[in-house]
Structures are given as structure tokens and as C-alpha cells.
Amino acid sequence: MVLNTLELTTQLNFLVKKGQALLLKHARKRILKDAFFYSVRWSAVAPLCLLLVVAANLWFGRSVWISSGTMLTLAFGITALAFLCRLFVLLGRVQVRRSSALALYDMQLQSADRLQAADEFLHKPELSTFEWAAVADSAVLIQRASIHHLDPLIFAGRPTTARQFALPLLIAIAFVAVTLWLNPQNEAVSFVELPDGQISALSLGSADEQHNEDSAVKRDNTELLTHKVSENSLKVVEVLSQQSALQSESSEKSAATAGSTDEQRAMQSQQQAQRGAGASAQSSAAVQQPAKSKAAGVPKSDQLPDQEPQVPQAQKANSGVSNGAGNSSGSKPASSEKEAADNKAESEDENLLDQDPEHEEDEEQKADSAAQAKASSRKAAVDRRLSASAGSKDVREQANGRSGPGGQKKTRGVAAMLLAVPMPDRLQGTPNPGRTKSIQEQSRPEPDLSGLAAVSDRGSNQATLGTVTQHSDPVWLQQVVRTYFMAGKVKTQAPQKNITESEE
Amino acid sequence: MNHVDIAREQAEKFRAVFSSIKNEVAQMIVGQDDVINGVLTALLAGGHVLLEGVPGLGKTMLVSSVSKALALQFSRIQFTPDMMPADIQGTTILMETATGGHELSFQQGPIVSNLVLADEINRATPKTQSALLEVMQEKQLTVGRRTIKMEEPYCVMATQNPVEQEGTYPLPEAQLDRFLFKLVVGYPSEQDYHHIIDRTTSDQKVEVRSVSDAATINEMRAVVRQVPVPEVAKTYAIRLVMATQPGSDYAPDSVNQFVSLGASPRGIQSLMLAAKVQALLNGRYAVSCVDIEAIALPVLRHRIVLNFRAHASKVTADSLVADVLAKVKFPA
């Protein structure tokens, strides 16, 4: 049997090329996946760095002004850079060996490594009889492999687990949170260092306004600022008192409204911005009131007069999106689009009913502010009625046997029928943990770690003990002991003496 | 005749000899095909075999049948607790000469033979068991100043009973490592019991003929050593052996947890030789990973020394080898 080794080598080379192409294709897929997860980790770098910058700014009392666009660009830029770097590094490392390509055929043809063995033996300078036989044995398989269509491989990478997505998810959440926090369209809470070293929390309509106001604060003299703040605080107090009076009217108006216009939306946004400014002035005034009573010349920050002319500009720039309806606490920014849309609807309803828009806007503003101020302190009325059948619809809904929402359930049933034994249905305390189950786990036997003590470590028995203190007994005890032993000695010596005398 | 034809003829002859011996042995031993294959594989690979099984399964008969089929010099040593090394190696005794004088003469022990059956090997003390170390590895025996070379083929086939552990001495690792295979003899199937009854309790006599001889066995051993091993098979065997060693790159968690000592380089030699026999029996002219995988269990199971945790957790060496085979994939 004559083997055409050249032909076999050519065919094997062809198979190697085909196998390598397929393996490279799958390797690239794997690399893409790997590079993606690698780059996701780097996407956290930009938000973290910017957070550090913001924290540093806050620490040093400077204002925060970082646009979300910058952060987005940085984050995506770093991520893309990491992805590309990883991709090129991994692609540079990819190398499909001949044996791997032939192993693919061996696996699919179930030829028990015959192709790999033949390829290896054909590259040897001299072949033994069994190596020739192995090559000849694989010749038929090489022919089969050359016409064999390689099946697409199942992606052999590690299965994607939920854990792999945990980090990207966390980064995305952090990214969104940081973006929202730093978004200049939202109400940004920053700290402005006052000339006397006080740091005052200001609730501003936008970061741009804050920036402008900071410059204004530095520019104005302290007396003028104090005067403006006092004026604004007085205005806010008046507005709040009017709003509480108009609360009932505003609720009726909001119930019977329909339709709107663009001008009305803009006006409503303007009202909210004024409300925010007023509330912020109120908070700043509240902070600075004691200081004012002590020293009239203490500089104060004043935002309201500077903000009022800026509000329409901000509205134009934001194309109708509500700007920072800051309340007194600053914890409920009404900047989201949803809230803005709700506010628009309310304003439309109000404007349809009222003839004098400016007057009605003031009233609505007052009513809303009063309602918001009361909402936090309002508690549901305690409903002590147990029956759910009597009364109107409203009464039936609240008659659930509970003393108000979230309260303790009222006593019912058998417990209520027991005389003089008040027994609530639900007892406060920790619930019963239930049946306990103890699992005996196998403990790993561990060798005794304490090593043998070396002889040299022990103290020598022949070493000097040092000074040994001897306690002397009291004199009377010494006397008693001496008397006792002397008496005993006399007794023992007396018979011996007698014996000696008798012998003599 | 070119190289290919020579190799094919040798491989054909190898398979023919193997099957003829197997058929003869199978006349005496019903069933137990795997055990017979294992014993003959170890014999043709030039190794020794340790047969483990409960009494009555035909271990001793299997070995004696193989010796009859091969027409080899056979000796049986029944290991007992009071046996001494001199009992199996031989000793110098005082002999009377023809002239009436006396002289010291060396009497060879039963270990000097072609096929040695070490029956119940774990009943002898470690001192006596150690007398087999040199002869099993070096194929030579040293007693005093006398060194005796064993005639090829030389094969020690030992049996041990896994249940009667009272008064037994477990084989030391050094001796276990010298066995190429450890074969576990199991119970026969229901059909096999019928054949056993018919052959052993009736008046028909079954005799094993000699179908081969020592020269043929040596020739077959030479053929086995000619079988080439491609790199892929070498890599796989190396990884398998390394996977039995705790702390290695390929070791599965179970090995790291339960194994104190893994297979030695002697293990990979045994793995390769047995895989070569397997390749020839499977009609191949080069070793493949499939051949190595097929003989990995009997080669590796007795080379894994379990730690205390494994004994406490009732983890066996067989399950660990299975873990290793599952972990280590064919290299590509």
C-alpha cells in the first residue's frame, strides 16, 4: 500500500483552514462577550469620579455645577475605550492551533484522534511502522472529513449568570441616580458659603440660577441682602396665611375644569417657580432669623429678588418643563414631567373658571402652598365604628374596624365578649419563630496546631529560685510551739533515764 | 512488504493471540469479561494485577487458568500472617552432598516463576509484603549476595478480600503503585450462574488448553511498545494523572478535598502501556484519548490515597476517578 503523503498533507491543511475559520468565528463571539462585560466595569469610573468631584466641591463649600451631558459623554467614552482595548488585546491573543482545528473534525466524525495523530506523524522526519499504519488508517477519514460540513458549534463559553448582570445593573442604577442628582434641570441642593462662614442650604430653581445667584451674593453688600431676606420672609408668611384661607376654594375649582392653552401652562409653571422661590426664601429666613435678632449687621443670603426676573428665562430655556417647585423642606421636588403635567392640568381648569388670571393665580398658589404645608401634619381621623353597613359610602369605606389607617385593629369576636378581660386581637411583640430545626453539620477534623514544647523552652530545675520570703510566726505562737515540743522531749527522756538508773 | 503491512500484521496477530487466550480462559471463568480483559491487558502490557473481590468469585481460578492457557511456569503463594520473606524469596539451607559432606545451598522460593499468584496478599505482614517490591519493579530478586533475574514474561497476580479485614495488613502505597491494574471482581449475572452450575457441578470436564507461550507473550509485549502516542493523548494522560494530585491545576474539588496522595509518574507509565494495548485491541495503530479514558479507572483507583475525611464521608477512589474523568476534557 503506497501512501501519497503530499496529498494527505494538502487535505489536512485544507481541513485545518476550515476548522480554524470556524473556531475563530466562535472565538470572536466569545471575545465580544468578554469585552462587553469587561467594559461594563469601566462604565462606573466616570460617575464615581464625578461623585468624588461633587463631594469635594460640597466639602469645600463651593457650588455644584456639572452637566449630565458631560458625565454621559465621559461614561460612554470610557466604556467604549475599555471595550475597544479589551477587544483588540483579546483578538491579538487568539490563536487556533492545527490540532484544535483537526480535533473539531475528530470530534464530529468520532474518529478517535486519528486526524490529529496523522497530522502529527506526517510532520515527523521519520515514521515507524505503526506511525505509517496510523497515517494509512486515517487516510479514509481524511477523505471523509474533506467533504464533511462542520456543524455549527454550540457556544462553549461560560453561561451567562445573573451574577454577571448584577454589576452592570448596580452601575446603571448608580449612574441614573448620579445623573438625576446632578441634572441641572432639577432642583439642586447646594451649599453656599456665607461671608461670615455660615453654610446655608438653598433650594434653587436650577443650577444655572444657583450659579448666577452665587455671583450675586458675592457682589451685593450684606445689608442689602439682609433687608431683602426680611422682606421675602414677610411675603411668604402673608402668602401662607392667604393660602390656608383659600384651600377650600381651590379644591372645588380643581374638580370642575377642562381644556388648556399653552399660555396658561407657562403661567402655571411661572407660579410654581415663584412658589419654590418663596419657599426657599422662607427656609433661609427661618435659618437666619435668630441671627438677625442678635446682630442686625450679620450678612444673609437672599435669593428671591434675584430669582424673580430669572424664572421666565429658565422657562424659555426649558421649553415649559416645570422648574424647581421647591417646598419648605426641599424633599419633594416637583420637577418631573408627570408632576408638571398634573400641575398644568390644574392650572388649565382654574383658568377656565376665573376671569382675572393674575388674581386667581395668586389665590391658587396660596391654596396649594397651604395644602402642601398641611399635608405633612394631617392624620387620618380615627374611625371607631365597627359596622360597615350604616352611613354613607364614605363612612362604609372607612369603617373597617381599625382605628384609622395603620392603627391597631379593634377588638372583635370572642375576645370582645369576655367581660372585664380586655384582650386585643393582635398582641404587640415578636411573632412565634415556629418550629426550630437544628442541623448538625460535619466539622472538618483539624490537626492539633499546638506544637510540641521544646525542652529548651522550659525553665531549668536547677536554676536559682531567688529570694524566698519566710514568714515568722508571732511570738506567742512560737512560745506555744516551743513549750509543746519541750514538754514532749521531757516525756521521752524521762523513761530512758529511769531505765539507765535501774541498770546501774 | 511495506511498513504499513508489517504493522497491520503485527496488530492482527496481537488481537488474535489476545482473543485466543481470552476464549480459553473464558471456558473456566464464566462472565467477568472485563476482569479477563484487564488481566490479559496487564499481562501484555508487562504489568502486575491486583484482583479484589469477595471469596468465591473465581479470582484464583482465573489466574491459574491464564497460566494454563499461556503455558507459563506458575506458582501460587498463599499469604498468611506468619509468613516470612524467606518463605517466598527462598533461603540458604544445609544440604548433604553426594560425597557425604554438607554444603549451603540456595533454595529458590515460589516467587521465582513466570506467573505468580499471591493469594490473599493482604494477610501477610508488611515485612513479607515488602519482599515483593524488588521483584515486581526490577524483575529481579536479591537474597543475600545472590541476585536472580526473573524470566520474562514475569507477572504477579495478587488477590485480596475486601471484607475480611480482621487480621489483615493493607498493602503499602509503594506496593500498590507497582500493580498496573487493580481489578474489582464483581458478582456474575443471573445467566452466568446457569453456566457456572452446568460447568462445575456436572460430570463434564473443562480443561484449559495452552494457546500461547512465553515467547509469544514477549513478542506481543514488544508490539505493544511500538504503538505510537500522539501529543494529544500524552497531554490527556498527563492531565489525568495530575488531576489526581491534590492542589494541581486540573484537580477537581473532590480530589482537593479527599485525596492526600495522587498518582505518581509510575501511574502515567502504566496508563500509557495499558492504553497502547487498548488501542491495538480497538483496531487502532496509535493511542487515542478514548483508549486512555477506557483504562483510567483500573489504573488510577489504587494509586489515589484517600485522607481521613474521605473515609469519614465514605468517598471511594472510584468516585474520585470518575470526578477526574468528568473534569478533564480531551485536549484540543
Strand elements of chain B, count: 11
Radius of gyration of chain A: 46 Å
Total helical elements of chain A: 17
The percentage helix of chain B is: 40-55%
Order of helix and strand elements from N to C terminus of chain B: HHEHEHEEEHHEEEHEHHHHEHHEHH
Our estimate of the beta-strand percent of chain A is under 5%
* Anisotropy-based shape of chain B: globular
Unreliable runs of chain B: none
Structural class label of chain B: alpha/beta
What class would the helix/strand composition of chain A place it in? mainly alpha
- On the 0 to 100 scale, the average pLDDT of chain B is 87
State the low-pLDDT regions of chain A, or none.
186-230, 250-263, 276-336, 351-357, 387-396, 499-504
Intertermini distance of chain A:
139 Å
Task: Tell me, briefly, the overall form of chain A.
Answer: extended
Mind describing the biggest β-sheet of chain A? 2 strands, antiparallel
Largest interface: pair, residues per side: A-B, 28 and 31 residues
